Amino acid sequence: MDARSQRKLRFLAAILGTGVLGGIIFVAAHVGFSPPQLLIGIIYGILISGAIGTFELLASSGPLRDWLGSLPFSASLAIRSAFYATVIIPVQYFDLGVLIAGLTPDPKQDVWTPIIFSGVFAVALNLLFAIANIIGPRAFLHLVTGRYHTPVEERRFVLFVDIAGSTTLAERLGSLGIHRFLDKTFRSLTGPIIDCRGEVLNYVGDEIIVTWSEASGTVDCRPLRCFLSMRATLQKLQERFEKEFGVAPRIRGSLHFGPVIVGEIGDIKRAIVFNGDVMNTAARLEELSRNVEGGFVASRPAIDRFESTLPAPLQDLGVREIRGKSGSIAVMGLA
Length: 335
Prior knowledge:
This protein is 59% helix and 19% strand. By secondary structure, the protein is of the alpha+beta class. It folds into 2 domains: 3-135, no CATH class; 140-334, Nucleotide cyclase, GGDEF domain (Alpha-Beta Plaits, 2-Layer Sandwich). Strand 2 and strand 3 form a beta hairpin. Helix 1 (3-31) runs antiparallel to helix 2 (35-59), helix 2 packs antiparallel against helix 4 (73-93) and helix 6 crosses helix 7 (137-145). The protein starts with a helix and ends with a strand. The model has no long low-confidence stretch (mean pLDDT 87).
C-alpha cells in the first residue's frame, strides 16, 4: 500500500476510534456501563465519526481541499461544523443507533442532550485537527506525547529545497503575488513528501525543510527520490503555473545526514526544533547548489547511508569548502 493510502487509513482509524470513545464516554456518564447502551453508543460513534472522517478525507484532496484552504480559519471551521450538524442532528433525532442495534426507540428519550454533546465533541475534534494541520501532525503528536520534552540526539536526513530566483519573482509578482506563488508551490510539493514519507520541519521564506529518521530515509533512497519527485511534479504543473502567474517554479536542493538535537523550545509558542552542525551544513550546501549544474548537492555522508540503488546518476563534485565552517566536505550532484 502506498504512503498516501496508509496515511488516509490511519487518519480514518483515528477518527473512528475517537468517535467510539466519545460514544462510550457519553453512555457511561448517563446510564453507566450497560452492555446494550454501550453498543448503542459505539454505533453512534461509528456513524457520526465515519461520516465526518469521510468528509475530512475528501476535504484533504481535490477541489474541496483547494477551496477550503483558500478560506480563513474561522470560515473553514464554520463550514465543517455546519456539515457536522447535518450529520449529527438526523442521526440522533431519528435514533438511528438504537434502530441499528435492533432496539425500540423511547419516544420520551431526550434527544437534544446527545445532539449537543455530539456537536461539541465534533467541533472540539475539528479544532484539534486544525491545530495539528497548522503545526504538523507528527509535531502535534510529539508535543502531546512529550517525546521531545527532554532534548534527544537523533541521526537524521535533512533536505533543504529552495525556490530558484525568488527575489526576482517577488519584484515581478509583488508581495501578495509571491506569497500566493510560494503557497501554491509548497502545496504542490506536499504529495511527493507524503509519498516518500518525509516530515516537513519548517517553511522558511522561500525554502522548505524536510527530514527523515535514519531508519526511514535509508529505505529506497527516500530523500533523493523526494527531491526528484518534487521536480517531476512541478514539471507536470508548469502550464498551470505559467497560466496563473506567468512563470513556473524551479527548485534547488541540498541533502545532508548526521546527528541532530531534537527538542521542544519556547514558552508562549512551543515548538519542536532541530539544532546542530547538520542543519547548518545542509543550509550551506543549499547555497552551494546555486552554483552547480543540476541545482542539487548532497553530502557524501548522506549518499553513503543509502541502502539501495540510486534513482538517478550522481557525479562527484569533489571536496568543497563550506562558508562559515572550518574544514571541507565531500559532495555529489545530479549528473
